[in-house]
């Protein structure tokens, strides 16, 4: 094998190894798990029984540090996570989207609108990427079982 071919093979091997390391490491946000359920908190207020519902890592675990993005939903517990998110986007922010449990382009655009809103009103510093993640969840309002909107902050 010529020196040139050996060098090419070495560079290809190093490049492949470097690419593999980057692929395995991934972006910092990749470590955040996707939402696969919802949790509800029983609230006694004004004599009414209310349940505040929001997407969470797993059903009833109260851990809202999770992600929903295009392609999520459709079936199972993740369907409900997306469905409740869409319900809140519609009721609390006036987003005209289908409430169908499918995180598609309309839902992503609605989340971008919410991210822009909180950046302008609260100087939230949210990435306007259409991904529902822990930072967006922190600022968002959610519709409860009596139709009222509430926020965690």
From TrEMBL:
Record keywords = Signal
**Domain of life, per lineage:** Bacteria
- Pfam families annotated for this entry? PG_binding_1
Q: Taking every annotated instance into account, which residue ranges of this chain make up the domain Peptidoglycan binding-like?
A: 85-137
What range does the record give for the signal peptide? 1-30
Q: What is this protein called?
A: Putative peptidoglycan binding domain-containing protein
Its organism's taxonomic lineage begins at: Bacteria, Bacillati, Actinomycetota, Actinomycetes, Kitasatosporales
């Amino acid at each position: 094998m010529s020196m040139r071919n050996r060098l090419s093979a070495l560079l290809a091997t190093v490049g492949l190894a470097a690419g593999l390391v980057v692929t395995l490491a991934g972006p910092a946000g990749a470590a955040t798990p996707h939402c696969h359920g919802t949790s509800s908190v029983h609230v006694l207020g004004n004599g009414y029984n209310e349940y505040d519902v929001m997407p969470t890592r797993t059903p009833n675990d109260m851990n809202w540090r999770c992600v929903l993005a295009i392609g999520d939903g459709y079936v199972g517990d993740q369907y409900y996570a997306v469905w409740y998110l869409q319900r809140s986007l519609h009721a609390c922010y006036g987003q005209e989207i289908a409430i169908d449990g499918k995180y598609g382009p309309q839902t992503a655009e609605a989340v971008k609108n919410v991210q822009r809103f909180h950046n302008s009103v609260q100087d939230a510093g949210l990435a306007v990427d259409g991904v529902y993640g822990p930072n967006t969840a922190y600022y968002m309002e959610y519709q409860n079982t009596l139709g009222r909107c509430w926020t965690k902050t």
